Amino acid sequence: MFEAQFQTFEDTEGGIALSARLAAFREEIVRQGLTGFVIPRGDSQQNEYVAPSEERLAWLSGFTGSAGQAIVLTSAAAIFVDGRYTLQAAQQVDAAAWTIEPLADPPPEKWLGRHLKSGDRLGFDPWLHTTAATERLQRACEQAGAELVAVTANPVDAIWTERPEPPLGPVKLHGLQFAGESEADKLARIGAEIEKLAVDALVLSDSHAVAWTFNIRGSDVAHTPLPLSYALLPKDGRPTIFIDHRKLSNAVRDHLENLVTIAEPDTLLPTLAEAAKDNAVIGLDSATAADALSRAVIAAGGKPRRMTDPVLLLKAIKNAAEIAGTRTAHHRDGAALVRFLAWVDREARTGLTEIDAAEALETFRRDTGALKDVSFPTISGTGANGAIVHYRVTRKTNQRIKPGDLLLIDSGAQYEDGTTDVTRTIAIGEPTAEMRDRFTRVLRGHIAVATAIFPDGTSGVQIDTLARQFLWQAGLDFEHGTGHGVGSYLSVHEGPGRISKLGYTPLRRGMILSNEPGYYKAGAYGIRIENLELIVEANIKGAEKSMNAFETLTLAPIDRRLIDVGQLSAAERSWIDGYHARVRREIKPLLDDELTKVWLEAATAPLGSA
Predict the structure, then answer these.
(1) Cα–Cα distance, 78 to 66 (Å, whole number)
(2) Are residues 361 and 458 in the same domain?
(3) Are 421 and 334 in contact (CB under 8 A)?
(4) Which domain does 63 fall in, by range?
(5) Distance (Å, whole) CA 524 – CA 512
(6) Judging by beta carbons within 10 Å of its beta carbon (0-12, 13-18, 19+), is residue 151 exposed, middle or buried?
(7) Residue 201 in contact with residue 275, Cβ under 8 Å?
(8) Does the predicted TM-score (pTM) go above 0.85?
(9) Is residue 9 part of a domain?
(10) What tens digit of pLDDT does each residue of 355-391 get?
(11) Which of 167, 288, 408, 580 can pair with 206 through a Cys bridge, CB separation 3.0 to 4.6 Å?
């Protein structure tokens, strides 16, 4: 009945099956005169989702998470992951060959300090590290008396004989009805920022920035409509986009050439060298610009200036057309979610599996006729798998959904008018008292964020505590951020705004953020409740400061069976009932079958009748 077209559930190679690759890799680094090498999880733009040709870390180690790094020495090898991926890494890599280490606390450089010896030569690919990351490696090597070596030929590529070709997804124009602002107007705004930054040219080293600036979309990486590309924006003169010409139709090329010069990717470095000569100052984004770009600027006699790409903030603050589009997308998505949730309630007793759930949800979204892709691989985890924060179900790990379990399903969609991301935790049968307690604590934190009122200048780190307070009261917590930014038919994970312990960027009206506190009991179950929130003006009579609030965009019932109503304050009960009344009011007219309408009425009934 259901099938997935935008995600697969095949098992990746891993564990001891990859031991031969690690042995071959060690032989290759020795052949290149090295005693070690650093393999980041990423491409030359630090993208979260990368093309198959860039999956070096997964190919070598078996670890498929979206954040990680490996260091291979002739005598030791380690995988570095953050808290989201500790359990996953343990399942995917060969414990006899690799140790699993934290990615941030302590950082990999500490591990290097314990393992590097005087005279060692540690290699790295300058296209796959930012300059800041390179400097951290350099300091670790210097302290150990070792040498950091920039290679011109990545040793992973040398032994990856069946490495896929780079992607050539066709580029499409993102219509003004969705973008809300022309390329010319965006370039004018970016030009004003370039003037403020006092640079002679700005490199757009992030394909998201290029896509937003020039109103183009593509399909070079999974789940994000990116055309992999670079751009050079001089203070004076015509911008240049560096993109493979095979991705461009005549119509797209003609449209773009009204404003920009189009060049092949292999001309980026010589063009950058020309722009950098005579001591020119070149702006490079500190988070995405490869160290190779900084080296090219210096070699040409220029001055690289590390900064935050101004497009990052411009892109994050959505305009009226983007906001209208995302509201429409969430109504469409909400109807698909309600159909899915009703289906799960009807079919869960028949022995559904995690893959069944993921395939069904994608199918309900495809049935809208507007789905372009899922915005990330659906996290569909029941029982112990739900406790793995970024669990990816495969044919091997697929579990049946049993009475007494919780099903955590975190999913999203890419529609041309908006990007969605939503998590619901579903009770299968009767939940335990502990499950209801933990769920209600997570829910109260979610409500605290959703109802927050905050002045201009407030950052996500100040709001993050609101989401955790009720868990903290019971000695509990969760090991991920409370919220991330979301793009407009772009990346589901977008900066610079976020709600987390590291969220220091002031939040601005027009930003879209997730609100997703959770709780995870290892080996037992996981809970997460996620809605997307739009930052809007808070109209407070008599306010002495400009104040902001969140408008909830996501429209899908929250499982009332998991709520311990006795824990809730009157205001919290009112929020739940008001949210459910809104879901019922706005989604019910979009449904076309009576069975689902009846289910929605019950799922959104006031808590007093629970």
Answers:
(1) 17
(2) yes
(3) no
(4) 15-159
(5) 32
(6) middle
(7) yes
(8) yes
(9) no
(10) 999 999 999 999 999 999 999 999 999 999 999 998 9
(11) 288
